[in-house]
Amino acid sequence: MDSLVLDIGGDIGALVIHAGPELAEQEIEISPADADPAAHREHNVVHARRDRHRTAYTAVFPSVASGDYTVWQRDGSPHAVVTIRGGEVTEHHL
Asked: Which of the two residues, 37 and 57, has the higher pLDDT score?
């Protein structure tokens, strides 16, 4: 798998969002769950990440403060709320 550097520890975690190939090179957005839906959102692009056996499509948020976050769909509606814990990697499947 491609190498990634995650900046986690203390009250900082990471989020890996698994997607399908149809979302390759598309942006995924997150925001604090208690934020105004019109507030600024963090975003990352879904990239194809390959190893010897398969290709995975993921958007990686390498440094996210602990808390609850809304994962937004491409149409701007909320998809799910995920909980980030410090020092941990949270995974979510679209």
From this structure: 57
Q: What residues does each domain of the chain span?
A: 12-93
For residue 2, the model assigns a pLDDT of 60
Q: Tokens 């990239």 belong to which residue? A: 47
- Work out the mean pLDDT of the chain and round it to a whole number: 94
Dist CA 90 CA 77 (whole Å): 21
- CATH C-level class of 12-93: mainly beta
Q: Is the torsion defined by CA of 70, 17, 7, 88 positive or negative?
A: positive
Tokens of 9: 């520890």
What residues have CB less than 8 Å from 87, skipping those under 6 apart?
8, 9, 10, 12, 13
CB 26 within 8 A of CB 48: no
Q: Is the predicted pLDDT of residue 3 greater than 90, yes or no?
A: no
